[in-house]
Design goal:
Layout lengths: L1 H10 L4 H15 L1 H5 L9 E4 L36 E4 L2 E5 L9 E4 L5 E6 L13 H13 L16 E6 L4 E6 L5 H8 L8 H4 L15 H16 L17 E6 L6 E5 L14 E4 L4 H9 L5 E4 L7 H6 L2 E6 L4 E6 L8 H4 L2 H9 L3 H8 L4 E2 L17 H4 L7 H10 L2 E2 L7 E2 L20 E6 L4 H15 L4 E6 L2 H10 L10 E6 L13 H4 L13 H12 L3 H14 L2 E3 L2 E2 L2 E6 L2 E2 L16 E2 L2
Helix pairs in contact: 4-7, 11-14, 18-19
Length: 613
């Protein structure tokens, strides 16, 4: 439109002065919008397909348990607010110093043997031009410490409990003293990335009517500030208009959001301090009700970065012919069938028995899942350290091979040898209660049945395939499943409900745990996922020995500590570790550059995207 005005101006020179007044007036009215339109001309927008039923529903980066999944983090809030330390360099799950907000920490040890991390922030600015300082770090830390029980990554005894002192030495340097000696690899991978500098000068208020202050400096104030921000986060319809969410340090600022569909649009932060700078005018996250609707849009060319559902693999040649490149998106994560070990769950005494968990694992045909349900686009490891591509050096030989391979006869025999009357295609019942080697085990009464409540979703063809396969194979040993089917965020929330609630609605649950090894547990020790009392530990697993092997990974930087942990978990099967599919089979327009390599920690970097001529 401006160019149209300019053409008319050349024909009517008398309009020049008027045009200047209009431009000046617009600049005054729009304020920051003038800055948003400066800089090099941006290329056309790029659209990206969300996964059905798993769209983002939270911007505020201090997540509670039900909100702790990658669509909220790496596909949504990470676009606007970056963690202090970033992991993931291309497809490799390694530390990325270039993208981090601070220089690598300098580790020292006190005379008492405690680890100290001295951290210096890079020169960085918020989108409103204010400098990012240690006061923003302090603001985050005060909110986390005062509200830690509501914070998803919190594990009692670890961050922030293991921090004894923080000294804010200058506007850019601070020092954290920990309560003991810790592995520096673990600190850099798992503890320090949990820090998100957030804009104290814009967010430190207890209500919308108050001016910004220093309320976070008291515990009561920090709790009130958190309640206000968390309440604003729940007000989804105001995401595009609230001034809170306009102050960002990432490359993108939200400009549109539909709470009903989770459709979202981001525009560039033209004051972004990092690199590369955004080169596209908008990044659009498209929502879909199903894989089929997404695939229809892909075939019609309406999606720039979409995906080919597993059940449409045969259509890949056709998609390529329509101008798309296709590439698998590996994911550095794990998942499978979760057992619920909550004390208030009636099935917990049964699931506490290792022989029961082993038998259930032996009823799952891993090769069939990998080759048929995942069409070969997947990977398998029998423990909690992922092996995308089959070449992760942190995966042990024990974890590469299933210690409990598919064997229906062996599973039935194990149950029968422990006092169960096995009824194939019926319900197996305990007939020999007690603690002996051929009895059912502690807490299992005579007449107890392997009749279990199974929480699942049916959002993808893989979900349906796993459900059908599990139901039919478990029935071979008389294990009956009562299905409780939910979708999307409701499923996630129900799965997490048993952590601290007096009642529980599920005994087993299927789900790929999109924690990327317990996000932000980038060094894959699993403290958030399997540590006793962790909010992220939705399966409520807790044992003294697992605590010991996890704790060693926090103090010992050697690979042997990690290997001992993963081998123990593979043997104990706190979940049935299933073959993991690739995150998705990505299809992206051939003239769109910067899509590859795909980040195996799920993170999106749309500032890498640009269109070729």
């Amino acid at each position: 439109m401006l160019r149209s005005w300019q053409r008319r101006t050349y024909r009517h020179l008398a309009w020049i002065a008027g045009l200047a007044v209009v431009i000046s007036t617009l600049a005054t009215i729009l304020g920051g919008a003038e800055a948003a339109n400066t800089g090099p001309r941006l290329q056309r927008a790029v659209s990206f397909a969300e996964l059905p039923g798993s769209g983002p529903i939270s911007l505020f980066p201090l997540y509670n348990g039900p909100q702790w999944f990658f669509a909220n983090e790496q596909w949504f809030s990470y676009l606007s607010w970056a963690p202090l330390y970033v992991w993931g360099k291309g497809s490799q799950p390694v530390f990325n110093s270039k993208l981090s907000l601070a220089n690598p920490p300098v580790f020292t040890t006190t005379a008492a043997g405690h680890t100290v991390a001295t951290i210096t922030l890079k020169p960085w600015r918020w989108s409103d031009g204010k400098p990012l300082t240690t006061r923003d770090v302090q603001f985050w830390m005060n909110l986390v410490i005062a509200n830690k029980v509501d914070w998803a990554p919190y594990v009692p005894g670890y961050f922030p409990d293991n921090v004894t002192h923080i000294a804010y030495l200058s506007s850019r340097t601070f020092r954290i003293t920990f309560d003991a000696h810790y592995s520096t690899v673990w600190l850099l991978g798992n503890e320090l990335p949990q820090i998100f500098p957030i804009p104290q000068h814009a967010w430190d208020r207890e209500s919308a009517s108050q001016p910004v202050g220093n309320y976070d400096l008291t515990t009561a104030g920090a709790r009130a500030v958190y309640r206000y921000l968390e309440g604003q986060d729940r007000n989804l319809s105001t995401y595009p208009t609230s001034g809170l969410w306009k102050v960002v340090d990432g490359a993108w600022e939200i400009s549109a959001y539909n709470p009903s569909t989770t459709y979202a649009t981001f525009v560039p932060n033209r004051n972004f301090s990092g690199s590369p700078k955004p080169r596209i005018s908008k990044f659009i996250e498209l929502s879909f009700t199903s894989d089929a609707s997404e695939f229809d849009s892909l075939e019609a060319g309406r999606v720039d970065i979409g995906y080919v559902p597993l059940n449409d693999i045969a259509a890949i040649p056709s998609i390529k012919a329509r101008g798309y490149n296709v590439a698998p998106w590996p994911q550095y994560t794990w998942g499978g069938i979760l057992f619920n070990f909550a004390r208030h769950d009636a099935a917990t005494p049964i699931l506490n028995q290792l022989y029961v968990r082993q038998a259930m694992t032996e009823l799952m045909p891993m090769k069939l899942i990998l080759n048929k349900l995942e069409h070969g686009y997947g990977y398998y490891a029998s423990g909690p350290v992922a092996d995308p591509g089959g070449n992760n050096p942190l995966v042990t030989a024990f974890e590469r091979h299933n210690p409990y391979p598919y064997n229906v006869a062996k599973a039935k025999k194990a149950l029968a040898n422990h006092g169960w009357h096995v009824v194939p295609n019926g319900i197996t019942t305990c007939t020999a209660p007690g603690l002996g080697p051929h009895q059912c085990g502690n807490g299992i009464a005579r007449g107890a049945q392997l009749d279990l409540r199974y929480l699942t979703d049916t959002e993808t063809q893989l979900d349906v395939g796993i459900n059908d396969l599990m139901q039919s194979n478990f029935s071979l040993a008389g294990i009956h499943l009562s299905f409780h089917i939910l979708n999307g965020a409701t499923y996630q929330g129900t799965q997490a409900d048993c952590t601290n609630k007096p009642t529980c609605s599920w005994d087993l649950s299927y789900g790929i745990e999109y924690w990327s090894d317990g996000n932000p547990d980038w060094w894959p020790t699993g403290g958030e996922a399997f540590g006793c009392g962790g909010i992220g530990n939705v399966e409520n697993w807790c044992s003294q020995q697992s605590q010991a092997v996890i704790a060693r990974t926090h103090t010992d930087s050697s690979p042997s500590a990690l290997f001992a942990y993963e081998n123990y978990m593979a043997k104990e099967v706190p979940i049935i570790f299933l073959p993991m599919p690739v995150l998705r089979i990505v299809a992206y327009k051939r003239n769109l550059q910067g899509v590859l390599p795909l980040n195996s920690l799920h993170t999106l970097y749309p500032n890498d995207y640009h269109w070729s001529k």
